[in-house]
Amino acid sequence: MVKTRPYLLPPNNGIWRVALLALCLLVAKGLAASPVTEGLNDAQLRGTATFRYLGLPIYDAKLYTPKGAPFSWSEDIALQLTYRKNIKKKALVNSTLEEMDRIGRSVPVRDQLDRCFKAVAKGDSYLAVSDGPDKVSFWLNGQKTCTIAYPGIKRSFMSVFLGDNTRSASFTRRLQGR
Fold first, then answer.
1. Can you tell me the distance from the alpha carbon of 99 to that of 51, in angstroms, rounded to the nearest whole number?
2. Which terminus of the chain, N or C, has fewer Cβ atoms within 10 Å?
3. So what's the pLDDT on residue 94?
4. Are strands 143-149 and 135-140 parallel, antiparallel or unpaired?
């Protein structure tokens, strides 16, 4: 008696091995080449926090520092915001500039922010990675959108979330891992 298999095609173990190897390589490459690790040497998660407005969660934030070291303005950092709601591009640009102005760190980068920012939907993530004091690069869902180069832009932009005069001191403390 001959046993029959319920397969439509005969098994080809070689194809499955190649497919599994390709999948493993893609997953490993995706982890190794994330924007956080590309832009920040030895990046490790330092702190997390959820920003709320009138009790409603707006975004979840993660701060990455070199080797997870304590937050310092003298080191490059990466800040990831994962949005919990849809926000229009104009609102992102305007609120960022308004907050920079409110905390006393206003810089003339409206046109650059307008090129960098896009509308976000629930679940979208923006990543900002500093490169010295005068450059910040932005990624949306893993795709680089731009780099802003302006004197002091790192401190001006990142102070909205990590400075001494943020909207929520407890959010900033948690984000800094304190």
1. 14
2. N
3. 96
4. antiparallel
Confidence of residue 12 (pLDDT cuts 50, 70, 90): low
Of 39-53, 57-71, 139-153, give the lowest mean pLDDT range.
39-53
Tokens of 100: 């920079």
DSSP string, 81-112: EEESS-B-HHHHHHHHHHHHHHTT---S-HHH
Contacts made by residues 156-159, CB under 8 angstroms, sequence distance 24+: 156/100, 156/105, 156/106, 156/107, 156/109, 157/96, 157/100, 157/128, 158/77, 158/79, 158/128, 158/130, 159/100, 159/103, 159/105
Pick the CATH number of 35-175 from 3.30.70.260, 3.90.1310.10, 1.10.10.10, 3.50.70.10: 3.50.70.10
pLDDT for residue 17 is more than 50: no
Cβ–Cβ under 8 Å, residues 47 and 63: yes
Closest CA to 34 of 68, 14, 4, 64: 64
